[in-house]
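WARN no homologs supplied; continuing
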Amino acid sequence: MLYDNHGRPLEYVRLAVTDRCNLRCFYCMPAEGIQYLPKRELLTYEEMERVVAILAGLGVRKVRLTGGEPFVRRDLVPFIERLSQIEGIHDISLTTNGVLTAPHIPELMRLGIRTVNLSLDTLDRTRFARITRRDELPAVMDTFFALLSAGIRVKINAVVMDGQNTEDLVPLAELTRELPVDVRFIEEMPFNGGSHDAVLLPWNHVRIREHLSQHFPGLHAIPTDASATATEYAIPGHMGTVGIIAAYSRTFCGTCNRIRLTAEGGLKTCLYDQGVLDVRALLRNGSTDSEIREALVSAFQHRAANGFEAEQRRPLHQLSFESMSTIGG
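OK structure emitted
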């Protein structure tokens, strides 16, 4: 198993297959969108497969496909099938906004995809359209119920935003009463491409938990994996669970086992760093697998202890955070 310089195992890569998205969530990007990368600057599927194979040789066992929106990129399902054939990769999952996902669910079942994270900040169509700047809630809900019918585990990711969707916390949590779904509430982060600053956090993980406890008095913490980002809770009589991810407070950094590869091939060993290795340059400048492996291991041995240290290491000109669409969710 591969370890970083703080003794944390690295066994999970979040792989962004595109920076493009078909929604325009205001907490992720400005209304006009972001400047997307030219296609030639994105990693090809073949390049991504090569990197994943190298990482698998180092001990990475899990791949989560992210974006942008993964299904915006053509031929995603054949790519997933090829990833599943890489020796050492035991778990492939994906994060999607659900707009384009439903037609692909039978193929996801065939490929053994066990978990899908569905980005869904509200169950109200008007608020959904305001937050995402697109009227696509019916398509997302079609995907949600189709995934459940297919027996694929669904985790709903809801970003909690003051003055935008806090009235949705209870309705979203209520989904767990009759459905085997995990609803995770995520602190808002500053990765918005410059559309606004998330300096103050009125709804942090403590307030989210207190709010849920007021409406669900029996809410209680349950055991989770050591590397989990969410603190998980059960509600008596509910089939599913709720979770809270302290993404801005960064309470889980000490056990983080994740690394990220952006769509343009930048390695991020922390969500809050500025990128620590240009993997695309190595791939396209003729580096051997052994040389790439050595570069990756070296980067892992200089990993920040937590998100606050990673943020402090950012150059002054990079203190305004990029869009989550370019990082990979």
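The first strand starts at residue 12 and ends at 16.
OK
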